[in-house]
Design goal:
Blueprint (H helix, E strand, L loop, with lengths): L3 E8 L2 E7 L4 E6 L13 E3 L3 H14 L16 H10 L8 E2 H12 L6 H9 L12 E2 L12 H14 L3
Parallel strand pairs: 1-4, 5-6
Antiparallel strand pairs: 1-2, 2-3
Amino acid sequence: MKMDCISFYSSPLGRITLASDGESLTGLWFEGQKHYGSTLRGVYEEKNLPVFRQTADWLDIYFGGAEPDFTPPLKLSGTEFQLRVWETLKTIPYGRTVTYGELAKTLAKQKGVLRVSAQAAGGAVGRNPVSIIVPCHRVIGADGSLKGYAGGIEKKEFLLNLEKNNKAV
């Protein structure tokens, strides 16, 4: 069995833990966030890997106020539904938001069903193991409120404002 590896990144919002299977990014969490370390399989070691350098470069660009033009290699693990939700999150454009209801409608259309529960979609959003890069912070309440972010509402607000203030026109 391969051992998981971790690294750390200092962001304007505090320390971020990065996780990898040795090749792809498998986790990115703010310290103390809900579901922290959810993809780590027990024993892991701190290492300097190419995927961590790529992720740090991506985060430097992002926190520097620009939209990165690449994505580090990702390997997401979850249920079929969670994976579908997370893939859909990656299609939300930089600087834009969607509501949980809109996300659920998109998922229903993709699957060819009448309805997907916005609550179920929200549950999967909340378990996203790769924060920021898989932009779960771009999902908001129907009334425009900043609902549920595993890293904390203040971090969600910061990320949305960063994108809004730096969005190329």
